[in-house]
Automatic annotation (TrEMBL):
Transmembrane segments: 21-43, 86-107, 119-142, 178-199
Domain of life: Eukaryota
GO CC term, one of those recorded: membrane
Keyword Transmembrane helix: yes
Location within or outside the cell: Membrane
Organism ancestry: Eukaryota, Metazoa, Chordata, Craniata, Vertebrata
Membrane topology category: Multi-pass membrane protein
Domain MARVEL as annotated: residue spans: 10-203
Xref: InterPro entries: Marvel, MARVEL_domain_protein_3
Keywords assigned: Membrane, Transmembrane, Transmembrane helix
Chief location of this protein within or outside the cell: membrane
Gene giving rise to this polypeptide: Marveld3_0
UniProt protein name: MALD3 protein
Record organism: Vidua chalybeata (Village indigobird)
Length: 215
């Protein structure tokens, strides 16, 4: 009926498109955060992966003796445990950011803003709070990762792998972590844009609801 058509029309509005972009950005942040966490170890985990990873990192690992292999395993596990809380926190934030716009889309499809226009002001406030909170969250995420990479565990691990000719274990931010930071910045800008659109839509709804009273 006409009610269903009006609900579907919301998905073609600028606010809905911004919210769908926010869903996409949050999903990518979640994926990049999980990649940052990685597996429990490079030396111990790579053989189980097989294929290109097995051959890229040396197959049977003939460069490692028993003592070096045990030390590599210990360093891998310690490095993994250092990064795990940061990656989990980032995944939790990404998950919350994924749920938030989905809830707002559902609320708008159910036409709550039309029946309760003040909801749009609440939505605007939430967007501003999240956008502002994203800045210290990104700082904490990157600062904590850099602290891990500057730790003695990472430095020793890097030197051990390099001494055996293995590459890819450098103590620096990798692509997924940099991407997560950039996606977080893009998400903050999208939230500010959505906040502005919510205020505009509030004015539009308020004016439309006042029209019958003027007749």
């Amino acid at each position: 009926g006409s009610l269903e058509r009006r609900r579907c029309l919301y998905l073609h509005t600028g606010r809905a498109w911004c919210q769908m972009v926010e869903v996409l950005l949050a999903a990518l942040i979640l994926v990049c955060s999980s990649v940052s966490c990685g597996s429990a170890g490079g030396y111990t985990g790579l053989p189980a992966l097989g294929g290109i990873y097995y051959y890229q990192y040396g197959g049977a690992y003939s460069g490692f003796s028993g003592a070096d292999g045990e030390r590599a395993q210990q360093l891998d596990q310690r490095f993994y445990l250092l990064k795990l809380p940061i990656a989990r926190a980032a995944m939790v934030v990404g998950g919350c950011l994924l749920v938030f716009p989905c809830v707002l889309i559902l609320v708008s499809v159910l036409q709550v803003p039309w029946h309760f226009p003040a909801w749009l002001l609440i939505e605007c406030t939430l967007y501003i709070v999240i956008a502002v909170g994203t800045v210290p969250a990104l700082y904490y995420f990157l600062h904590s990762l850099l602290s891990v990479y500057n730790s003695s565990v990472c430095k020793e691990r890097e030197q051990l792998y390099q001494s055996k000719g293995y590459q890819g274990f450098w103590c620096s931010l990798h692509g997924a972590e940099i991407a997560a930071g950039l996606l977080g910045c893009m998400a903050a800008m999208a939230y500010l844009l959505s906040a502005g659109i919510a205020v505009r839509d509030y004015r539009t709804v308020h004016e439309q609801k006042q029209k019958p009273l003027q007749l």
